[in-house]
C-alpha cells in the first residue's frame, strides 16, 4: 500500500512538472493562471499521497492549506485580470 | 524511491526560478514566482518539515505575490492597456 501511494505521489509530481511547460509557454495570462491552479491541486494531492506513504498525519494539514491558498491565489489573479488594480 | 521526489522537486524549483527571470511579461513572471512557492512547499514536505511548509505556503504563495501585485498596480503596467494580454508587448 505504501509503495502504491509513493508511486502515485511521484506520478503526480511528474504531472505537475509537465504543467510547467504550459506555465512557461502559455500565450495569455489566463493560461498561466489555469496552469498554476492545476499545479497547486496536483501538488496538494501529491502531499496527500506522501502522507500515506510516509505514514505521518502532520502532512495532511499541509495538503489542506495548499488547496485553500491555491484557490485564493487563482482568485486574486482572476480579480487582477478583471479589474486591473487591487 | 524517495529520491525521485527530491529530484523532481529540485527540477521544478530550478525551472520555475529560470522562468521567473526569463519571462518578459511581468504578470507571468510573478505567477512563476508564486509557482515556485508552491513547489518549495512540496519540497519542504518531502524534506520532512511540515511546519516550515505551512509558513512557506502563506509567505510564498499569497503574501509575496500580493505585494508584487500591488506594486504592478501602482506601476500601471501593460495589463490594463493590452486587451488580449499578449506576450510580446512588454514594457
Automatic annotation (TrEMBL), chain A:
InterPro entries: MrpF/PhaF-like. Keywords: Cell membrane, Membrane, Transmembrane, Transmembrane helix, Transport. The chain crosses the membrane at residues 32-51, 58-77. It is found in: Cell membrane. It is a multi-pass membrane protein. It comes from Flexivirga oryzae. Pfam families: MrpF_PhaF. It comes from the Bacteria. One of its GO terms (cellular component) is plasma membrane. This is Multicomponent Na+:H+ antiporter subunit F. Its main location: membrane. Belongs to the CPA3 antiporters (TC 2.A.63) subunit F family. One of its GO terms (molecular function) is sodium:proton antiporter activity.
Automatic annotation (TrEMBL), chain B:
The keyword Glycoprotein does not apply. GO terms for cellular component: plasma membrane. The chain crosses the membrane at residues 42-70. It is found in: Cell membrane. Residues 12-76 form the MrpA C-terminal/MbhD domain. Keywords: Cell membrane, Membrane, Transmembrane, Transmembrane helix. This is Putative MnhB-related membrane protein. InterPro entries: MrpA_C/MbhD. Its main location: membrane. It is a multi-pass membrane protein.
Amino acid at each position: 500500500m505504501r509503495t502504491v501511494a509513493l508511486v502515485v505521489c511521484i506520478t503526480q509530481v511528474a504531472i505537475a512538472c509537465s504543467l510547467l511547460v504550459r506555465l512557461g509557454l502559455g500565450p495569455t495570462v489566463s493560461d498561466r493562471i489555469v496552469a498554476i491552479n492545476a499545479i497547486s491541486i496536483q501538488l496538494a494531492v501529491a502531499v496527500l499521497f506522501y502522507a500515506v506513504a510516509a505514514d505521518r498525519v502532520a502532512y495532511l494539514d499541509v495538503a489542506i492549506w495548499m488547496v485553500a491558498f491555491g484557490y485564493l491565489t487563482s482568485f486574486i489573479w482572476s480579480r487582477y485580470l478583471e479589474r486591473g488594480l487591487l | 524511491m524517495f529520491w525521485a521526489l527530491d529530484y523532481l522537486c529540485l527540477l521544478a524549483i530550478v525551472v520555475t526560478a529560470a522562468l521567473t527571470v526569463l519571462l518578459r511579461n511581468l504578470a507571468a513572471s510573478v505567477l512563476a514566482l508564486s509557482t515556485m512557492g508552491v513547489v518549495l512547499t512540496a519540497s519542504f514536505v518531502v524534506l520532512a518539515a511540515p511546519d516550515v511548509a505551512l509558513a512557506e505556503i502563506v509567505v510564498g504563495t499569497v503574501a509575496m505575490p500580493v505585494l508584487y501585485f500591488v506594486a504592478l498596480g501602482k506601476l500601471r503596467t501593460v495589463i490594463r492597456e493590452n486587451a488580449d494580454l499578449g506576450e510580446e508587448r512588454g514594457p
